[in-house]
Amino acid sequence: KPHESLSFSFQIVSSLQQPIAIFWFFSDAPFRHEPGTHIFRCEIPKLRLYMGSYTLTTWFSERRSETLLENLQEICQFEVSMHEFERPDYPWEANECTYLEDAVWKTGEKY
User: Fold this and answer.
1) Stretch 39-47: mean pLDDT, rounded?
2) d(CA 49, CA 61)
3) Is the model more confident about 57 or about 8?
């Protein structure tokens, strides 16, 4: 049933039950105005998760009354491996970090 303050969010959770990232969809979502079945698709252009096992937690709620309509936990289990990325001098170790970031290194300059 449509309602102007419906919201949906999901969280990526590590195997250690640590929340890693959260994504939400509510601003002018079609499910706020139109009845029916709605399919959500979230595209994350560059997810930088480190190797390990993860699950999703979802929330579907009515924000104005702060009513939780549905909360699913530990669903959609997935694994991130580092097989495509070589690190010659150091092997990839579990729990070394939670995500990887791009960096630009410079040498030969004095600061």
Assistant:
1) 89
2) 27
3) 57
